[in-house]
Amino acid sequence: MGVQPGEPSAYCRGCGYSLVGLGEKHRCPECGRAFDLADSRTFRQRPRRRIWRIARWVAYPLLLATLVLAGWIGWLSWEWRCEQHAIAAAGVRVVGRDRFVPAWLVQSLGPQAYITDRATDVKPIDAEAFCAARTAHLKRLRHLRRLDLSEMSITDLSPVANITGLEDLVLCDTPVADVSPLADVRGLRGIFMNRTPVSDISPLKHLSGLQILDLRDTKVADLSPLAGLTELRCLILLRAPVDDRCLPVLKGLTKLEQVHLQATRVTPDGAAELRAALPRCIIFGP
């Protein structure tokens, strides 16, 4: 049984809009839902309670936020498991970890907060396992910032090229002579290759963000590849076979703060000329 014309007791089932005066068969002007005043099943005879409408407006965003949070936590857990598998496959030991999520999420996870830990600093345990690690495993170390290869019997740096987010690389006391794989690791900020047989640093010429370069006790005698490294802050050349002819290229690196020239072939006159060209830089040496 429907309503009699003129009775203000018909409301849209979709949005609650009053349907009185719109004709017996029409569509709601608010939401477009069809109704027939002769059929009480197509409309409401009482308006919706405002509290339910408010509850719906609140519940939907809360439900959406809950689903997003659950998906985020699930993704963090999956990423953590992938990283653990990559660490084991690459044969590395985690030296440093960090978290890249808000503190409130860490606190809310409680004992499960370990799924937010990400390896940022590692050192290989087994050189052969590291060199044999598949590209996919190393790419899963997405948050890795520092890699310590010191005192490892590693000669091939090809695996390092797969760690695109790397910032610091330590090669001290290794037999590495070829650094060409580092040409594609554009995020490097510091390279420490002291006491290595490296003689050619031309592959580093495009690492425009490099800030620290340690070449002590290497065979590097040509510094011309450094000409484009305008962000360089610290250059260590102790006991490297450099002389006064290598210094002109450094005069254009105006952000240099320290240059170590002790036990090199640089003369006092050459060092004095460099000090005059870079008055804000501390020159250690003759």
Q: What would a concise description of this structure say?
A:
By secondary structure, the chain is an alpha/beta fold. It contains 5 helices and 13 strands.
Helices and strands in order, then pairings?
Elements: E1 11-12, E2 25-27, E3 34-36, E4 43-44, H1 50-90, E5 92-99, H2 103-109, E6 117-124, H3 127-132, H4 135-139, E7 146-148, E8 168-170, E9 190-192, E10 212-214, E11 234-236, E12 258-260, H5 268-277, E13 282-284
Parallel strand pairs: 6-7, 7-8, 8-9, 9-10, 10-11, 11-12, 12-13
Antiparallel strand pairs: 1-4, 2-3, 5-6
Distance between the termini: 106 Å
| Low-confidence regions | 1-6
Spatial order of the strands forming the largest sheet: 5-6-7-8-9-10-11-12-13
Strand content: 15-25%
Give the name of the CATH architecture of the largest domain: Alpha-Beta Horseshoe
The whole-angstrom Rg is 34 Å
